[in-house]
């Protein structure tokens, strides 16, 4: 966004009551008159520092004059405003727009590499189902003699499986071994 457009956007904010006092406006005009490159000629500086005109009128005329002169002049006005009234410069509406982040921009600090957003509980649930199906398929296969081995595994697993579930599995294995 060009400085002229920013100045047009900030014009109402700057000319509203009690934003800039007379001393600050005079300092800005003097800086624009004396700093290289000279933005305001001596006649223009006297016109904008005339105490007979109201502050609002002088400031409005100054801002319109700078907009007509071009982007470089508006940029120098912002520099003078920053030097002489930094708090006001930071509160400008155009500065607040520049400070807000673009919602389409990727924030690399917050970006994380994740393979799965479901978390560890989902992984454990899937793993438990897969292990249970593998154990069931292995135990139900009639070609293998797994009853003794399964009984040993289930006998040493009171921590993994609750006592009631372990007892039911043991009863089931004993029924299968009798048949």
TrEMBL record:
Domain (CARD) ranges: 38-96
| Record keywords | Disulfide bond, Endoplasmic reticulum, Membrane, Mitochondrion, Transmembrane, Transmembrane helix
Plastid found in the keyword field: no
Gene Ontology, cellular component aspect:
endoplasmic reticulum membrane; mitochondrial membrane
Which topology term describes how it sits in the membrane? Single-pass membrane protein
Q: Which SUPFAM superfamilies does the record match to this protein?
A: DEATH domain
The name of this protein is Caspase recruitment domain-containing protein 19
Source organism: Pycnonotus jocosus
Which gene name does the record give? Card19
